[in-house]
UniProtKB/TrEMBL annotation, chain A:
Catalytic activity: L-histidyl-[protein] + phosphoenolpyruvate = N(pros)-phospho-L-histidyl-[protein] + pyruvate
Chief place of localization: cytoplasm
InterPro entries according to UniProt: PEP-util_enz_mobile_dom (IPR008279), PEP-utilizing_PTS_enzyme (IPR050499), PEP_util_AS (IPR018274), PEP_util_C (IPR000121), PEP_util_CS (IPR023151), Phosphohistidine_dom_sf (IPR036637), PTS_EI (IPR024692), PTS_EI-like (IPR006318)
CC annotations in GO: cytoplasm
Gene Ontology biological process: phosphoenolpyruvate-dependent sugar phosphotransferase system
Compartments reported by the entry: Cytoplasm
UniProt source species: Paenibacillus sambharensis
Binding residues for Mg(2+): E431, D455
Protein name: Phosphoenolpyruvate-protein phosphotransferase
Gene name for this UniProt entry: ptsP
From TrEMBL, chain B:
GO biological process, one term: phosphoenolpyruvate-dependent sugar phosphotransferase system
Localization terms from the record: Cytoplasm
Species this chain originates from: Paenibacillus sambharensis
Protein name, as recorded: Phosphocarrier protein HPr
Entry GO terms, CC: cytoplasm
UniProt entry keywords in alphabetical sequence: Cytoplasm, Phosphotransferase system, Sugar transport, Transport
Top-rank taxon, per record: Bacteria
Domain HPr: 1-89
Entry-linked InterPro entries: HPr, HPr-like, HPr-like_sf, PTS_HPr_His_P_site
Length: 573, 91
């Protein structure tokens, strides 16, 4: 038995065989063949196998993610039987007496370059579909296994270098019981997605893919961030028990599902959830969320080949607002750049993407993108309780410009006789230290703040949160961070505004007592953290937490703050 | 032979999803089905062919059917074309 330590990214325990995900590179060489018939048969077989796989993929996607996500596979199926593709490939094999994979690649490449050279950006992106389908067939002709995440049909723990958000979205949690990756941190996208899919995950192990063979038995502990390779029977039994205890605790939490969040001394706070897609709303309601505190609209823009239309966005926003039935929904306008890139925007590579052209900076520059999103939001506003917030605001002027554009679009819609709510609250993310420091000035103009701790910590500590070598500097409990949070909350309350927090810190059991004491009004977290947090808050007195927070503010290191909270928790039990 | 001309009005042109629906419809018939646009003619039973037109709003496309069930082909394509919001019949 060996053990790999990583970062606990999504809670839960999985015991299953390892499934290694490797990037495959196919090489195709031209050969002259004696018997073209044999090559034609190989081609037909490979096409047949591919069709069965894609059909399966289509059905599964249809079941789990709905018609829209499944459409892409319908086009893949048509390509697999396209006479304009298969005809020329067969001709080539017969007349030039070449191997099937070579003939296919030649013809497919012609289509790929035709798409790539098209003037329409949309068609240029279709080259990716063509490559995807071609790769599948080529692999079958050559007898090479390619990893197809959504085709996994037995219980596994997935092991990979990293998973992209769209790969994570393909995971079928009936089969993929957990995943472990070489790179990533608690706030990387695969980790965030794992929590919203409720798949236990351990990330940032550095070397798990080298340590594990296909079929090894793995225990993945997403609570401790540990993966055990080929454990003995005793260990498996112990973990099965731990798994069961965890499941029981989940049942316990479920009892608080429809209760408000109230501290032991009667202070009410709001527990909200962070979501990425309309599908996540079910998880929010199942976990007793009182609001959506952060709707990350980036996912609407990702995993596609061009900007989403106003109609697409409107439908998504409306769905979320309607499903939440009047509960508040805080939508964050587009936050791309940084670690989130969109290939079709063709943004130049930057030396410091986290300090560069991203979020509202990009939106104020490329206003057509921003205006489309704002129009979609405004049109959706009549279907629920919409709140809009702008990300990465560094100066008051950025907020004023953003607000002015919003009001312009609102006026235009009114001119077009399209109904728009007049009750939309307008706020900002506080994730740049300059904004936290100047919160008193911002508080005069915004309706609310939402503190984005993931970025606020990285910008305050000047430590890239994706860089594992400086991960020790990601210190949510550093007194400097706690003081900044206090500045923001006090400034907002002085002007009668409310303050939320939508970073990972808001759902952290060590941070919660301090945040409650500082007077935070709304805690927005992964849906699965809501019930544990509600349980915790119900046992805390807000008056006592104020005192605890006072002490925390006077500490000099993060360790001292953690000690303080642990000591206090000890006296509680 | 049956044929009918249409004009694309969808802001996205003819994208993969509606193209898939059109090709699936053409595949239901025994007749040869073609599309003619921008001076090119392709079989409507090929999604790569239909996509390769790269049609944009304002472009015209003619559907042509030849074969035993040709009478039913054009109305079926018209229904998909209009229902998918691709465009309108070009008079």
């Amino acid at each position: 038995m060996s053990k790999v330590q990583g970062i606990a990214a999504a809670a839960g325990i999985a015991v299953a065989k390892a499934f290694r995900m490797e990037e495959v590179h196919l090489t195709v060489e031209k050969r002259t063949v004696e018997q073209p018939e044999a090559e034609l048969a190989k081609l037909d077989q490979a096409l047949g196998k591919s069709r069965i796989e894609v059909q399966l993929l289509k059905e599964r996607t249809l079941q789990q993610m709905g018609e829209k996500k499944a459409e892409i596979f319908e086009s893949h199926l048509l390509i697999l039987q396209d006479p304009e593709l298969i005809g020329p490939v067969r001709d080539k094999i017969s007349s030039e007496r070449v191997n099937a994979d070579f003939a296919l690649k030649e013809v497919a490449d012609m289509f790929i370059s035709m798409f790539e050279n098209n003037k329409s950006a949309y068609l240029r992106e279709r080259a990716a579909d063509m490559r995807d389908v071609t790769k599948r067939v080529l692999a079958h002709i050559q007898g090479v296994k390619i990893t197809d995440l959504s085709a996994i049909q037995e219980e596994v723990v997935l092991v990979a270098i990293d998973l992209t958000p769209s790969e994570t979205a393909q995971l079928d949690r009936n089969y993929v019981k957990g995943f472990a990756t070489n790179i990533g941190g608690r706030t990387s996208h695969s980790a965030i997605m794992a929590r919203s899919l409720e798949i236990p995950a351990v990330v940032g192990t550095k070397n798990i893919l080298d340590e594990v063979k296909d079929g090894d038995l793995l225990i993945l502990d997403g609570l401790e961030g540990v993966v055990l390779i080929n454990p003995n029977a005793e260990t498996v039994a112990a973990y099965r028990e731990k798994q069961q205890r965890y499941e029981e605790q989940k049942v316990e939490w479920a009892k608080l599902k429809d209760k408000p969040t109230v501290s032991a001394d009667g202070h009410h706070v709001e527990l909200a959830a962070n979501i990425g897609t309309p599908n996540d709303v079910t998880g929010v309601l199942d976990n007793g969320g009182e609001a959506v505190g952060l709707y990350r609209t980036e996912f609407l823009y990702m995993g596609r080949d061009k900007l989403p239309s106003e109609k697409d966005q409107f439908n998504a926003y409306r769905t979320v607002l309607e499903k939440m039935e009047g509960k508040p929904v805080v939508v964050r306008t587009l936050d791309i750049g940084g670690d989130k890139e969109l290939s079709y925007l063709k943004l130049p590579k930057e030396m410091n993407p986290f300090l560069g052209y991203r979020a509202v900076r990009l939106c104020l520059d490329q206003q057509d993108i921003f205006r489309t999103q704002l129009r979609a939001l405004l049109r959706a506003s009549v279907y629920g309780n919409l709140r809009i917030m702008f990300p990465m605001i560094a100066t008051l002027d950025e907020f004023r410009q953003s607000k002015a554009i919003l009001l312009e679009e609102k006026e235009k819609l009114k001119q077009e006789d399209i109904p728009v709510s007049d009750e939309i609250q307008l706020g900002i993310m506080v994730e740049i230290p300059s904004t936290a420091v100047l919160a008193d000035q911002f508080a005069k103009e915004v309706d609310f703040f939402s503190i984005g701790t993931n970025d606020l910590i990285q910008y305050t500590m000047a430590a890239d949160r994706m860089n594992e070598r400086v991960s020790y500097l990601y210190q949510p409990y550093n007194p400097a961070i706690i003081r900044l949070v206090k500045i923001v909350i006090d400034a907002a309350h002085k002007e009668g505004r409310w303050v939320g927090m939508c970073g990972e810190m808001a759902g952290d059991s060590t941070a919660i007592p301090i945040l409650l004491g500082l007077g935070l009004d709304e805690f927005s977290m992964s849906a699965t953290s809501i019930l544990p947090a509600r349980t915790q808050i119900s046992k805390l007195s807000q008056a006592d937490m104020q005192k605890l927070a006072e002490q925390a503010l006077q500490k000099s290191t993060a360790e001292e703050v953690v000690q303080l909270v642990e000591q206090f928790a000890g006296t509680q039990q | 032979m049956q044929q009918k001309k249409f004009r694309v009005t969808d802001e996205d042109g003819i994208h993969a999803r509606p193209a898939t629906a059109l090709v699936n419809t053409a595949n239901k018939f025994k007749s040869e089905v073609f599309a003619e646009a921008l001076g090119k003619k392709v079989t409507m039973k090929s999604i790569l062919g239909v996509l390769s037109f790269g049609l944009e709003p304002g472009d015209e496309i003619t559907f042509i059917a030849e074969g035993e069930d040709e009478a039913q082909v054009i109305p079926a394509l018209e229904e998909v074309f209009v229902k998918e919001g691709l465009g309108e019949v070009y008079e």
